[in-house]
Amino acid sequence: MVKQALDKAQNDDSLKDVGLYVFKVELPEGEKVQSKSDLFAKNGMHVNAVKDERHAIVSTTKQQFQMLKNRIISYTTNGTNRTHFDYIEEISPYIGTEKNSGELKKKVYIERPPEKVDIQLMFIPNLKPQEYSLAIKRVEEKIKATNGTMQQEPYVRRALWLL
After folding, report:
1. pTM for the full model?
2. CA distance 110 to 30
């Protein structure tokens, strides 16, 4: 499901050139993302953001994603890797449109939308500098391709996430 969603959104994926898959992971009731950092690391997942104690946005390379997929198939068919996947309730797609502004939706979906709309874009946190550079380049190209303009130079604000 995650791979299908990513493939479907490929043309609009700012991380397409980076080679990362980004998705959501939900842990069972009573489990906390902060106490399962080894679970994520051992399965090639990097925690980018913790939404709440049970939900995280994670990323992995395409190669690691394939290994993760194989491990999940093995777990579901014969119970291999129980120590890892018994602690995962659900893995689901994350396309990044979850924070669309209600005000922006109103402007875009009215009968005659404005000629210009001022927006601010945010990338998922905790990527590597080269990953941000490639993603920003892709977004800039997309903005220019739609005759958009950049109001200011992109910048990356560093945040510290404690797990």
Report:
1. 0.74
2. 44
